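Tutorial handout. Part one gives the primary structure; part two gives the three-dimensional structure as tokens.
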Amino acid sequence: MNVHYLRGRQLGADPAWMMTRWFEERRTVKMDVSREKNVIHYYDSGVRALDIDPVEGRYLLSGAADGGLAIFDVRNTSRKDPWMAPVVCTVEGKKAPGHLYSVSSVQWYPHDSGMFFTSSTDKTLKVWDANTLRVSEQFNFSQSVFTHQLSPMATSHCLIAVGCDGEHVTLCDLRSGSQSHVLRGHREAVLSVCWSPRSDNLLVSGSCDNCILLWDVRKARSCVASLDQHNGKKAGDTPHLGVSAHNGSVTGLSFLSDGLHLLSYGMDNRLRLWDVLTTRNTLVNYGRIVNRCHAGCRFALSRCQNPGYVFIPSASHIQMFDIHGGNRVRTLKGHFRSVTCCTFHPYEQELYSCSNDCSVLVWSPVVENISNRDEVCWFEGQAKSRVISSYTEDTWSDDEDEG
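Part two.
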């Protein structure tokens, strides 16, 4: 227990959120494989994608290399430790209504846990009714689908950005059930897309052409910037030969919660932090990270605002970094094969990861044992409180009322 924060809170010098942030940061940096919660082993093939429903924070959606889907209930209502998260419902792969080939991306509808989306290399994007496990809408493409995302913050549109094994990003409109329009600018397959949490119409995409493009979906000339790792181009320039964000395919993208910074992960084994307003590389050095996710990779951000941490799949491990400092905080070891995806629980300090070893692991803060000194301080505090209460307790007698 940090006495400085307690003292500052007692005197009113520090706000309440500072203590909360300190506890979150302290717990986050002590992540390890959970001893209290596990996810039941269901898949016989590699698990490729995960997502926690943002409404209840209870259901974990997953997709596998054989095209199968499974939803796990990760809320422990029995209060038993250790506890195994059960499978709520499943969809078999390689036959309808499931996917025929590997699932590439999954996502819950941001405002209701009754709907979710899945995409696959079978060239389809499917919209599912979670209550009946039936496909309510299906979008067909001419190439394999590697990624998709519906903006969790948008109120002006219901567009799903889809990245395929082509040279463009396709926008699918949920309201009309058709493909709205196409964003052209990349020269190879699009592996990652991400909507801004700050602006409804700002979208970024990463491709095998080593480029990251920023799009304003309202404009006819949608591409507003191409990010340059050497900071040699100005915002607003269209992609040119020689301008690249990475020295390899861009497999992962994620905005920070404030929408002012963007993290990108590439096959050049580098993680980069970008200033979105200036479109410049902040040049934070995270060191070399082994990236084996050739067809897209989803990494996770912690809830801590400052400094904030990012969890990056690196071969069979997960590397944890301080976002703004670039320091490697911790290496999470538990999987036996390449980690393909990880996601952070929106309401609890838990990390979920999946791998080609067919498993889904839960990572939670390690609970420290109370030391003898802490026990003595606790007992001394209890004794002092009892002494004080003996002087302040109400000893008024009701004898006069009885008389």
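Part three, for discussion. Residues 370-393 have pLDDT under 50 and may be disordered. The CA atoms of residues 274 and 282 lie 6 Å apart.
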